[in-house]
Design goal:
Strand order of the largest sheet: 1-6-5-2-3-4
Radius of gyration: 24 Å
Number of strands: 6
Protein name: Deoxyribodipyrimidine photo-lyase
Oligomer: single chain
GO biological process, one term: UV protection
Number of helices: 23
Bound molecules: flavin-adenine dinucleotide
CATH architecture of the largest domain: 3-Layer(aba) Sandwich
Organism: Drosophila lebanonensis
CATH topology of the largest domain: Rossmann fold
Largest sheet: 6 strands, mixed
EC number: 4.1.99.3
Number of domains: 2
Structural class: mainly alpha
Distance between the termini: 75 Å
Keywords: DNA damage, DNA repair, DNA-binding, FAD, Flavoprotein, Lyase
């Protein structure tokens, strides 16, 4: 392998001009030139001609995925990497020569090894420059209202990442503390030449990236890769989209370009032992946590393997029912993948590639799943990225805010406290059952989530309080909480985000209304209530 021209000089090149935020990558050093003109056709495969499933059990399924990667390219250097997935955040654009610490992937939103465009990009850079590669994750003792339930799921997944990294000669480092302190310190102490990070559209992770950009040594480039979305967020749209109908075509028309197979992350050939790898002290990680420990783990196993198992079961057992039964909480028809998506333990793109193999068998279900997991999910990222008020009424369309204000003084009867809601003490046995499921299992069926949130609007003193309670309960108990999908789901239910105005009524104004009778028409409410045991409680 040859060193790139740009780094063989041995000099530290400074940036020629400051890139605009979100600027497309142009330098040879970091992105490696005209990749998109490469002859590889891996990114051109039309999704629907993917071969039929050729596995019958889970082991074969895992093997099948590995074979897919291998048949795509032998490694990421041989692959036509889409430069549009990448943007340079720092002024520095060139990797200095002879940096013993090599390249660091600062892992955050996408906590997996394979099928991760950010890690692939980092490895591509390290291979090109013949440098070592390290993965670093910064663990903070408290994150918004995440509880022990969420931390255990996240840490469980990271333990698997550590093992996989070790097998690939990629040291994994768990740094305890905020990234703004730990990443620049790590870079200086280990003479790191370049940092690659992933992308999350929410406030706090964006502040982390911003702070690290400022705190890194001036000569170290920081590059960001959208490893979560299929169509990179900044490519899908440059503005806040109004609704699914306005973003759908922008995304779907680009799937031919971006919905590709992944090359494998390979055993890294450079720099064994360059940065001394110590086994992670997971006990110390747990000891430093300052989160709410009263909400403990649920039955879902964390990590990539468990996520693959969930995907396998969905494809082989539930997918056929998805289209017709996805609004029925008594039927097991959904993927249940959202916790693994949220923690980045499996790639949505991988799931779409596998689900699409069933297109001939279950066309309507495959299309419906793609609509949810691609269009709706990427629309949620779009909303949170372009609307700084994604979790407050300030972020609503003017018609929605107006209508909620017009009905601000409408009588709420009953009007519940947070404690009554949290303890499932309402008069509605369906709502209480959904709340009990949320607390006990860390999840709630997608259809009931809408009903649950809308009832909170009906039963609380103001729309502000309704949004606050809904986000709080969702984020505290749901394993997939604190996700763009969650903020948008709450804002859709209470504030009509991505929805339209409906017939005006008390409290809701023109915001879409849902009621118990409507649920009864859709599914067997009694069966659901029996399963989770919600009672009818009189207001004290
Ligand atoms: C009040 C409320 C709160 C919500 N909170 C969350 C949350 O905290 N985290 C979360 O991931 N989703 C949330 N959602 C969106 C949706 O309900 C969940 O994504 C879905 O229920 C997850 O279950 P699943 O993986 O079985 O979904 P499936 O139906 O199998 O769908 C597959 C994937 O598509 C995506 N998806 C499905 N429905 C939506 C949707 N309406 N909007 C955006 N993406 C969607 C998700 O990534 C999901 O995992 C919320 C919705 C509402 C109304």
């Amino acid at each position: 392998m040859k060193r790139s021209k740009a780094t063989s000089s041995g000099t530290v090149k400074q940036a020629k001009k400051k890139p605009k935020p979100g600027a497309k990558v142009e330098t040879k050093n970091i992105t490696g030139g005209n990749d998109e003109s490469s002859s590889s056709d891996a990114e051109q495969i039309p999704a629907k001609v993917l071969s039929k499933p050729n596995y019958t059990n889970f082991e074969q399924f895992l093997e099948h995925i590995e074979n897919q990667r291998r048949s795509c390219a032998s490694n990421v250097q041989e692959f036509s990497f889409k430069k549009k997935r990448v943007r340079i955040l720092s002024e520095a654009r060139d990797v200095k020569d002879k940096c013993t610490g090599g390249v660091v992937y600062w892992m955050s939103r996408d906590a997996r090894v394979q099928d991760n465009w950010a890690l692939l990009f980092a490895q591509r850079l390290a291979l090109k420059l013949e440098l070592p590669l390290n993965v670093v994750f910064c663990l903070v003792p408290k994150f918004l209202n995440a509880t022990l339930r969420h931390y255990k799921f996240m840490i469980g997944g990271l333990q698997e990442v550590e093992q996989q990294c070790r097998a690939l000669n990629i040291p994994f480092h768990l740094l305890l503390g905020p990234a703004v302190d730990r990443i620049p310190k790590f870079v200086r102490e280990h003479d790191v030449g370049a940092v690659v990070c992933d992308m999350a559209p929410l406030r706090v992770p964006r502040q982390w990236v911003e702070a690290v950009t400022q705190a890194l040594p001036a000569e170290v480039p920081l590059t960001q890769v959208d490893a979560h979305n299929i169509v990179p967020l900044w490519v899908a749209s440059e503005k806040q989209e109004y609704a699914a109908r306005t973003i759908r075509n922008k995304i779907n028309s680009k799937l031919g370009e971006f919905l590709s197979e992944f090359p494998p992350v390979i055993k890294h050939p450079y720099g064994k032992g360059c940065v001394k790898e110590r086994p992670v002290d997971w006990k110390a990680a747990y000891e430093m946590l300052e989160c709410d420990k009263s909400v403990d783990e649920v039955d879902s196993r964390p990590g990539y393997q468990a996520a693959c198992r969930q995907l396998f079961d969905f494809c082989t057992r539930r997918l056929g029912k998805f289209n017709e039964k996805r609004n029925d909480p008594t039927v097991d028809a959904l993927s249940g993948l959202s916790p693994w998506f949220h923690f980045g333990q499996i790639s949505v793109q991988r799931c779409i590639l596998e689900v699409q193999r069933y297109h001939t068998q279950h066309k309507a279900s495959v299309d419906a799943f793609c609509e949810e997991a691609i269009v709706r999910r990427e629309l949620a990222d779009n909303f949170c990225y372009y609307n700084e008020h994604y979790d407050s009424l300030k972020g609503l369309q003017s018609w929605a805010l107006q209508t909620l204000n017009d009905h601000r003084k409408d009588e709420r009867s009953p009007c519940y406290t947070l404690e009554e809601l949290e303890r499932a003490r309402t008069y509605d046995d369906l709502w209480n059952s959904a709340q009990l499921q949320l607390v006990k299992e860390g999840k709630m069926h997608g259809f009931l989530r809408m009903y649950w949130a809308k009832k909170i609007l009906e039963w609380t003193a103001s729309p502000e309080e309704a949004l606050e309670f809904t986000i709080l309960l969702n984020d505290k108990y749901s394993l997939d909480g604190r996700d763009p999908n969650g903020y948008v789901g709450c804002m859709w239910s209470i504030g009509g985000v991505h929805d339209q105005g409906w017939k005006e009524r008390s409290i809701f104004g023109k915001i879409r209304y849902m009621n118990y009778q409507g649920c009864k028409r859709k599914f067997d409410v009694t069966a659901y209530v029996m399963r989770y045991g919600g009672k009818v409680h009189k207001k004290q």
